[in-house]
Amino acid sequence: MRIVIKIGTSTLAYPNGRLNIRHTEELVKTFSDLQNAGHELMIVSSGAIGMGAGKMQIDRPQDMPTKQAAASVGQCELMYTYDRLFTAYNHTVGQILVTREDFNDARRLMNLENTLYRLLQLRVIPIINENDSVATEEIAVGDNDTMGALVAKYMRADLLVLLSDIDGLYTADPHTHPEAELIPEVREITPALEALAGGAGSRLGTGGMATKLMAARLATGAGVDMVIANGADPMALYSIVAGHGPGTRFIGRRK
Ligand code: GLU
Question: What is the pTM of this model?
Fold first, then answer.
């Protein structure tokens, strides 16, 4: 299977922006094992801005130049971490930084697809992020949930997994409604479902449930199944890849 896995900042780093070593090591171990089993993995990883801020010991930046500076520092830290951890399992990673323009322009999109396909053929694991150091708001995809869905769509993936700090989509906001129940499967994204998704996100990342539903719309419309699951339990990926829970699975529309 060709699988795109998006990792949110809250999975990779603590709220102060420092690397969550345990989560990240366990994730890379599981990814490496899935790659060994013959799957083709593509990782869309957030964390550049959050980890850059953590490394420079500044608060999460709000203004554009500081965000871009933090991304520049954090992207190094991110790739250094992935490269080191994947190398321990004998896997090679490649960095791909993109902006919205790379998806909107046919020639650039083709170049991006060609590079990604070649990396997959070479059994390299692409690690994709927005090029935050140059992407201003107008030319940014904006959040990596959408980025993950775009990559899954254009690379004709079988599955997109969004790993975050939530277990999936609930019948109400579980932070404020303890009786809220997890929705295991979604076959149609209805307006009622969209109303369930508040705009909230964590302190370090950008994507909340609203961007995840937008990603689900994009992915399922392209025939790709999408799962929202908690990144704190990397072992769950085996079961997700096998077509089971945990999390919320959005069923891709088959053509
Ligand atoms: N590209 C951003 C980063 O690496 C993250 C975007 C997101 O969290 O969706 O910090």
Answer: 0.93
